[in-house]
Amino acid sequence: MSKYYKNILETVGHTPMVQLKHIFPNSKHNYFAKVEYLNPGGSIKDRVAVAMIEDAERRGDLKPGGTIIEATSGNTGVGLALVGAVKGYKCIFTMPEKMSEEKRAILRAYGARVVITPSSVEPDHPMSHYSVAKKFAQEIPGAFLVNQFHNPDNPKRHYETTGPEIWDQMEGKVDMLVGGAGTGGTLSGCAKFLKEKNPQVKVICADPIGSILYDLYYHKKIVDPPGSYKVEGVGEDMLPDNVHLNMYDGFFKVSDQEAFDITRELVAKEGLLVGPSSGLALVGAVKAAEKLEKPANIVVIFPDSGRAYLSKAFNDKWMVENGLLDAEDTKNAFNRVLTAEEALADLKKK
Ligand code: PMP
What we know:
Blueprint (H helix, E strand, L loop, with lengths): L16 E3 L10 E6 L9 H15 L7 E5 L3 H13 L2 E7 L4 H9 L3 E5 L11 H11 L3 E3 L7 H17 L6 E5 L4 H13 L4 E7 L4 H7 L30 E5 L1 H15 L5 H14 L7 E6 L13 H6 L5 H5 L8 H10 L1
Parallel strand pairs: 2-10, 3-4, 3-6, 4-5, 7-8, 7-10, 8-9
Antiparallel strand pairs: 1-2
Helix pairs in contact: 1-2, 1-5, 5-6, 8-9
The chain binds 4'-deoxy-4'-aminopyridoxal-5'-phosphate (PMP).
4'-deoxy-4'-aminopyridoxal-5'-phosphate (PMP) binds next to helix 6.
C-alpha cells in the first residue's frame, strides 16, 4: 500500500486528543482536547464538508460542473472550498459581515466567491445569509445548497468519525463531552455514538450569552431575545434540525469575556493555537465540572485554529476596542512588540 495520500481530502479527520496539563493545575478532573484545527482546512468542518459533498454526489444532487452554495460563518466554507478545489466545483458562500477578514481571504484564496450579508437581520429576512444562499441555489443551474444546519449528513459524519475517534483515543474512559453548537452537528453526532457505547456519558453544550439554544433547552421557548456576541461559529438565533436537544444533558452560558480570556491563556499555557469557540467550550466544561462530585475525564472539542483570529482575539488593539482587555494591561506585557532600541533600553532598566 502506498504511503502517500491521493489527495488532501484523505487527510481529513484522525485528529489528536491532547491532555491539558498546565491550565488547571489544581483541578481534580482530567481535561482532554480534541484538536480539530489540525484538519487540512484548519477546522472540524472539513469532516462534514467532505461528507455532505460526497453524499450529495452519490445521490446525484451534485453533478460535475455544479456549484456548491452555502451560508457559512467561515469554517464550513473553507472545508467546502477545499473539496470544491480538489473536485472541480465552483463555490459561492454567503457570510455575515461580523466574520473575520482572514476567513474571507482564505475562501477567496481557494477560488470561492464570497457574498457578505448584514449581521443583524432575522434569519428569515431576505438579506440574511440563509435567505441569500437559498436565492442563489434557486437561480443558478446545477447549484447544490449544502444546508449544513439541516443536512443529516452533517451529524452522521460525526457519528461515523469524530465520536468513534474520541471513544478509541480515550479507550472508553470518557465521562463528559463538551462543545459549542453552531449547526449542532458535532455534538449531536458524537453524543449519539458515545451514548450508544456508554449511556452514562454526559454531553454538555457551552452556549454564548446571546444565543437562544440555552433557553430552548431549559424553557422550551425564548426567554432572553437573541443578542450579539463576538465568539464566532457557535450559538444560534434559530433552532437548526441538527441540534438534537434530546441528546444533550445540560447547557452552560458563557460570556465573550470568559471565552476570550481563556482562549488567550490556552494558547500561551498549552501551546494550542485555537479560536474563541474552543475557549468557550472549555469554560463550559469547567462550569459543568464544578457540579461533579467524582474526578472525571472530560473531553472538550476545540473546533478551529487561532490563525483565523489574528486580527481579533490575538490583536490587543481589537480586544481593547471591544472592551475585552484593559488598555493598561497591554502596556507592559512581556509579549508586546518592541523596537530593538526599546528592548535594549528595557534591558538597562533592570
Ligand atoms: N466553532 C467554530 C469556530 C465553528 O465554525 C463551528 C461551526 N459553525 C462550531 C464551533 C460548531 O460546530 P457545529 O456546527 O458542528 O455545531
